[in-house]
């Protein structure tokens, strides 16, 4: 006789499931505000990190929205299939992982070439996107747009037509992967948004100083972190 290992649920998974049941049952109605992280932590008698991890999963599943400095709200439009046991991210798991893997190899090369070949016009374009990132650090939707634009602009700065075509052909998939990975990234707190901004700034600085090795490595490190977060949650 063989037995399958049974892993006891983590605290965050228990909280996630309980909150999800309360949302699906209508106790927390669409558009309503959830208690603060501190209040939830006190109510469930767990640490705040446990609450944040549970909320991160619910956000990735489409059940809640996070507003930096404005609280956590039940999504006005809940997922079509309100099945608390359904992982809505599963169908895209393999696709998301493959896109990130491809990005690591393509974009590290684009960054190296951009550092070698960038023009003042390329730098100006990157600087404008960086400024947009700074201005929209509290606006998740606009941050995603700026994030995708930044990566595509680096390809443009490589001045390699094939690289540019590759990135443009993957533009929609990359935009989707950025959106999904940002949803998964640790509760989308302002601290996380600022950390992502700092990573993009480091890539920009390496390109600006024409350090191709540093530009490639910094981009690779950035995308490797994205990959790690994705694997952790998926």
Automatic annotation (TrEMBL):
Ranges where the HTH gntR-type domain occurs: 9-77
SMART domains: FCD, HTH_GNTR
InterPro entries noted in UniProt: GntR_C, TF_FadR/GntR_C, Tscrpt_reg_HTH_GntR, WH-like_DNA-bd_sf, WH_DNA-bd_sf
Single GO molecular function: DNA binding
Organism superkingdom: Bacteria
Protein keywords: DNA-binding, Transcription, Transcription regulation
Full protein name: FadR family transcriptional regulator
Organism: Paenibacillus albiflavus
């Amino acid at each position: 006789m063989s037995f399958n290992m049974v892993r006891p649920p983590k605290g965050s998974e228990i909280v996630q499931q309980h909150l999800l049941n309360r949302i699906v049952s209508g106790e927390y109605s669409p558009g309503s505000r959830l208690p603060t992280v501190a209040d939830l932590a006190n109510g469930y008698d767990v640490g705040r990190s446990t609450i944040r991890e549970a909320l991160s999963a619910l956000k990735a599943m489409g059940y809640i929205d996070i507003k930096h400095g404005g609280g956590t709200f039940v999504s006005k439009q809940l997922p079509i299939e309100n099945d608390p046991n359904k992982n809505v991210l599963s169908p895209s798991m393999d696709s998301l992982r493959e896109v990130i893997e491809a990005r690591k190899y393509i974009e590290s090369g684009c960054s190296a070439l951009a550092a070698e070949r960038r023009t003042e016009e390329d730098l100006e374009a990157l600087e404008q996107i960086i400024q947009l990132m700074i201005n929209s650090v509290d606006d998740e939707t606009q941050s995603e747009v700026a994030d995708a634009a930044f990566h595509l602009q680096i390809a443009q700065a490589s001045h390699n037509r094939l690289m540019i075509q590759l990135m443009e052909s993957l533009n929609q998939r990359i935009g989707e992967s950025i959106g999904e990975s940002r949803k998964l990234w640790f509760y989308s707190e302002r601290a996380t948004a600022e950390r992502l901004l700092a990573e993009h700034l480091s890539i920009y600085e390496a390109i600006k100083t024409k350090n191709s090795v540093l530009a490639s490595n910094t981009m690779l490190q950035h995308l490797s972190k994205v990959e790690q977060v994705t694997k952790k949650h998926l």
